[in-house]
Design brief:
mainly beta; five-stranded mixed β-barrel
């Protein structure tokens, strides 16, 4: 099967949402907006171009790390499998949603600095909590 892998740098534009499924799998989601920007040498100003919105879905251990590390407004870099999901609204209208099943998510260091917590092998950072330890043990 062919996959379309994509890397997008943008801004988290929704609150981070968490969901735990009956089988114990965890999912964290947010919407990402990426905007083209270019510098106009004539006006000496930045010009905003087109925007793209993408739903980002993070699973298992990545879901836990994203949930405790990111907030709305953060600039991030996301890489993962891109796909277009089709669905119908309650009124029967056909819609599409651009989505990424994330493999990796991190802060965009062009916009911030971070302190990295590196876990001891077999352990996870205390900030992720006991829920993440369950995920690591199951992996």
């Amino acid at each position: 099967m062919f996959e379309t892998n994509l890397t997008v740098a943008g801004k988290v534009v929704t609150e981070i949402t968490r969901h735990t499924f009956p089988n114990g799998d965890r999912k964290t989601s947010f919407r990402l907006m990426a905007r083209e920007r270019r510098f106009d040498r004539e006006t000496q100003d930045w010009i905003d171009g087109d925007k793209v919105f993408v739903q980002v879905n993070c699973w298992r251990r990545l879901a836990e790390g994203v949930a405790v590390s990111l907030v709305k407004g953060d600039n991030v870099v996301v890489t993962g499998r891109f796909f277009v999901r089709e669905y119908f609204t309650d009124s029967g209208e056909r819609r599409t949603s651009n989505e990424i099943d994330a493999r990796s998510v991190g802060p965009d260091l062009a916009w911030c600095t971070v302190t990295v917590e590196r876990p001891t092998p077999g352990l996870v950072p205390a900030s992720i909590g006991a829920a993440a330890e369950e995920v690591v043990a199951a992996a």
